[in-house]
Amino acid sequence: MNKRLLSSLTAMIFLGIGGPSHAGASSPAEIRQTEVTAAKRITAVGWLTSRAKAASGEIGALRALVRSGGQPVRRVVKLKRKVAKGNWRTVQRKRTRPDGTVRVRLGTVRKVTKYRMWVRPTDRYRGRASRVLLVANSTSPSGENPYLPTTPTTPDNATDSSPDTERPNTPGRPGSAQPTSPSDRTAVCDSSAKHSILGRLDSGHLDEVSGVAASGRSSQRFWVHNDSGDSPSLYAISSSGALEQTTRIAGVTARDWEDIAFGPGPETGQPYLYIGDIGDNPRVRSSVTVHRLLEPALGLGSLTTADVDSIVLTYPDGPHNAETLLIDPWDGSLLIVTKTSAGVAQLYSTDYFGPGSHSRSLVHRGSVEVTETATAGDVSRDGSSVLIRGYSGLYGWQRTGNEPLWSALSRQACVMGSVNEVQGEAVGFLADDSGYLTISEKIDQPLNQFLFQ
Q1: The pTM is what?
Q2: Are residues 362 and 303 in the same domain?
Q3: How many domains would you assign to the chain?
Q4: Is the Cα dihedral 62, 59, 216, 110 positive or negative?
Q5: How far is CA 258 from CA 224, 304, 346, in A?
């Protein structure tokens, strides 16, 4: 018999499809309980094709959807091991398909967060056993992952039994949930970081890069912008540093753009970029502005967009110079960190703002000790960690519970891995929170990548 056919038939029997039930099959109540556990981690759809995996039971407590004759049939793959770092065989995303499913390979779990998993590939399960599952991108308990261009669909007969940890919705505010447990979080302070140079900026025009944000549409692309003196434009660069696209934003000015951030917006499930026109070296501006736009499509070379929301912000105690803009992915709130030479920066915040133009007064939220001048910052995509950099160092904070960003920054920071840069003014988490990227001003600067270990 053809080995592939035998493998598929074995998997179908293991799942209870197309054959008699095997001894010890789970009752509906047991299956329901397993699904509750699985829903807290990741949702799997697809089918088994490997005898080795069917026999080992190492796939994990996944909520599985097995397609049979074109009709979805709900089954749960039972397992021997719990979801845990380093001791659980799971899958690695390979390629996203139009229906939201993803081609995968097997590996060992390296880190688990609410929205995604990182795995270390393993030789043992490569080749034949690599075609094990088609795994849908996991969603938050509220049903949406704000950092995916498209939201995977859930079959009509599949109900999410995960606990409701969604924050209360406020009109005009995106509803999202905080990580459910410490094991779900990007633990920046508990990780070392391995440094490598991805490439170098190859465009002479990118000579004052003061902000970087990983694309939500491509894991190999980043958005950057220049400091004051440039046109209101964003630039998409590849991981090698090549300039691939220029997006000009019509109807706004670039008085002193200092930071860029990724965050939620009016359309749930769509990636948005926030631009902080917050620089004020002479401290004379009566107000500063933050712009928000849907992340532009990639691969267009040159683009002009006028679809932008803006909020004009006024400090309650007079002008401040700032170069750090943080966006909270849990509730869409904004936090500005001022730039001072004393090592103690002031924090000012405002709530999420809806579509259109707005004006607000910022609220003072205390201070943060960074021991040097704060030149950029970022929040991890899962919302659990914060980075703030200076010219010579990088600092991290871990959030606890559902605390606001400014509360996390009131604690002492941990020192993160960094390298000496000419004039470092850009830092951003990678799109999968597996590390971060730093860039300096001046031409021909390296893209310094740090991966959590």
Answers
A1: 0.64
A2: yes
A3: 2
A4: positive
A5: 10, 21, 16
Distances (CA, A) of 12 to 17, 50, 66, 116: 5, 10, 9, 27
Matching residue, tokens 């502005």: 289
Does 290 share its domain with 321? yes
Both 288 and 152 in a single domain? no
Question: Does 424 share its domain with 290?
Answer: yes
Which of 181, 214, 240 lies at the terminal end of a domain, its last residue? 181
| Tokens encoding 404 | 């606001």
pLDDT band of residue 228 (cuts 50, 70, 90) is confident
Give the CATH number, domain containing residue 251. Answer: 2.120.10
Q: Is 199 helix (H, G, I), strand (E, B) or coil?
A: strand
Q: Are 85 and 183 in contact (CB under 8 A)?
A: yes
* Beta strands, E only, 167-269: 193-200, 209-214, 221-226, 233-238, 243-249, 259-263
Intra-chain end-to-end CA distance of the chain, in Å: 45
- Rounded to whole angstroms, the maximal C-alpha distance in the chain is 80
Q: In what order do the strands lie in the sheet with 322-327?
A: 322-327, 334-338, 344-350, 363-369
Does 270 share its domain with 410?
yes
Inter-CA distances, 325 with 32, 289, 376, Å? 43, 11, 7
Parallel/antiparallel/unpaired status of strands 243-249 and 302-305: parallel
Give the DSSP H or E segment for 73: strand 71-77
Question: Tens digits of per-residue pLDDT, 88-113?
Answer: 333 333 344 454 443 333 344 344 44
Cβ neighbours, 10 Å, residue 112: 23
Residue 209 and residue 145 share a domain: no
- 110: Cβ–Cβ under 8 A, 6 or more apart, which residues? 85, 86, 118, 119, 120
Same domain, 242 and 367: yes
Contact of 403 with 386, CB cutoff 8 Å: no
Domain boundary residue, one of 147, 181, 215:
181
Question: How many Å apart are CA 61 and CA 69, to the nearest integer?
Answer: 24
381 in Cβ contact with 433 (< 8 Å):
yes
Q: What residue type is 263 in one-letter code?
A: G
- For the segment 16-26, what is each residue's pLDDT rounded down to a tens digit? 333 333 333 33
- 151 and 218, same domain (yes or no): no
Where in the sequence is the domain holding 52, given as residue range(s)? 3-169+176-181
